[in-house]
Specification:
By secondary structure, this protein is an alpha/beta fold. The protein contains 17 helices and 16 strands. It has 2 domains: 156 residues, 3-Layer(aba) Sandwich (Rossmann fold); 232 residues, Spore Coat Polysaccharide Biosynthesis Protein SpsA, Chain A. The protein is elongated. It starts with 11 loop residues before the first strand and ends in a 6-residue tail after the last helix.
Length: 465
């Protein structure tokens, strides 16, 4: 902004915006500017907005502004650069119910100075975020400007508090969700978490499938775990043009655990529901619209869809995971269902993890700190343990359509297992945990033992170390 206006890079900027008329107090803005100029050099008062004709004549007749510290900028289609470049925002309105300009300034850490009893903004411009002076007292306003310009520490503290207040209580997208709810379109707030390590090859395609969802995405959190490839650059390139509210969170060192990244994403998520969309998987545009229907039942805590299986080159391996679940039931996963989470644990998840891929799951957000230490002990079965914990809190919903695409890698933990004994022991531990917690039938107990035999054979384990 200073460069655009040919000002010194160290110049102090006091901003005002809007249609400059008597109500907006443009005359007061000028009075304050001229008072401040007598005590401070290199300080400029910038007003962005057109001036009402009668007021323009009044200004011309009343003030000598040639070579002054007051600069008028005509109304602009985009004025973010002015807000972000200002040191203070001067709210000189004599009457303004709740001006959005105050929130615009506060959002970019610019403290506001205004009048007492001039509008609803008194509820957010407080001693913690700005200064309110006596109504129409231009001298008091000038003194307030000078005091904050001379006190960088206080100005910074007020700016930080202002931005925090807006982020926490006056987010535009939250307002839109509220409006949609009022008109009978109650969309839920879904935070999408994309943990990434070394998936440069797939990351942009993954992010595009999140962007293509036919259901509003509340926010997109990309978690970068120190990939040695160019994943981060690819994610930044995507962020530069997406309309999604996207944040990139970089680790300083590799976490060493995908479940640690899950936990971080859940903690950072601001939505009420979380979709952990793994960086190498894909999703149908109807994934969220269909899966989120499950949460129409307020008791549902997990909703997931059937998954396709694809290989490293996007070739289809299988349309479903029915071959994996047919040993439990050949009919159950052919149709949508909602059922009690405890029952799902007692006759299904007690045998094995029948939710094959977290990318196909959306879940209600809960504080997971009580289970974090235990979760991080798992090498492979952390998702199973997480579902076990969640399903004790409510129901599960399943969508039979294959709307998630789970990528199977030839040499991955998903397929080959680095540590077969660890993998097997985690299966046993989860079975035993659920058996102790739930009322499991003798038939299901037999099924758990049969599954252990299958796994031992598959992993090439000859004993139960």
């Amino acid at each position: 902004m200073r460069e655009m206006l040919h000002l010194d890079s160290n110049a102090k900027i006091i901003l005002g915006t809007g249609f400059a008329d008597h109500r907006k107090g443009i005359d007061i803005f000028i009075e304050v500017a001229l008072m401040v100029a007598k005590q401070m050099d290199n300080t400029y008062f910038i007003w962005v907005g057109n001036v009402e004709q009668t007021m323009q004549q009044y200004i011309t007749d009343t003030f000598e502004l040639q070579n002054s510290n007051v600069i008028f900028v005509p109304a602009q289609p985009e004025i973010a650069v002015y807000y972000s470049g200002a040191d203070l925002y001067l709210m000189t309105s004599r009457e303004d119910p709740f001006p959005s300009v105050v929130m615009e300034a506060m959002n970019v850490k610019v403290p506001v100075i205004g009048f007492q009893n001039a509008g609803g903004f008194k509820d957010i411009v407080t001693e913690k975020t700005g200064i309110l002076v006596e109504y129409e007292n231009d001298q008091a306003m000038a003194l307030a400007v000078i005091s904050l310009l001379k006190d960088n520490g206080k100005r910074s503290t007020l700016g930080e508090a202002s931005s925090r207040l807006i982020r926490e209580h006056f987010v535009w997208k939250d307002y839109m969700y509220t409006l949609l709810d009022l008109v009978g379109m109650p969309y839920k707030k879904v935070s999408v978490v994309v943990p990434n390590y070394n998936y440069e090859k797939y990351i942009q395609a993954r992010l595009k499938t999140v962007e293509a969802q036919k259901y509003p995405v509340y926010e997109l959190l990309y978690l970068e775990d120190c990939s040695p490839d160019n994943s981060l650059e690819a994610a930044k390139e995507f962020m530069s043009h997406t309309k999604l509210d996207m944040r990139i969170i970089e680790n300083e060192t590799n976490s060493g655990s995908v479940f640690k990244q899950w936990a971080k994403g859940i903690k950072l998520a601001k939505g009420d529901y979380v979709w952990i969309a793994e960086a190498d998987d894909l999703a149908d545009p109807e994934f969220l619209p269909e899966v989120m229907k499950g949460f129409d039942d307020p008791e549902v805590v997990i909703s997931y869809s059937q998954s396709k299986q694809i290989d490293e080159c996007d070739e289809l391996i299988s349309e479903t995971y029915l071959d994996y679940t047919n040993d439990i039931s050949t009919k159950k996963w052919l149709a949508d269902y909602i059922r009690d989470g405890g029952k799902e644990l007692a006759d299904t998840l007690v045998i094995k993890n029948t939710i094959p891929n977290v990318s196909g799951v959306v879940f209600k957000k809960f504080d997971i700190s009580p289970i974090l230490d235990k979760l991080l002990t798992f090498k492979v079965g952390g998702d199973w343990y997480f579902y076990y914990w969640l399903l004790q809190k409510g129901k599960i919903s399943f969508i039979a359509k294959s709307l998630n695409m789970h990528r199977r890698h030839t040499n991955s933990v998903t397929v080959s297992q680095e540590n077969n004994h660890k993998h097997y022991q985690e299966i046993v531990d989860m079975q035993e945990l659920i058996k102790k917690k739930m009322d499991v039938s003798d038939e299901m107990l037999d099924s758990t033992m049969n599954y252990r035999k299958v796994v031992k054979k598959y992993l090439g384990i000859n004993d139960e170390k």
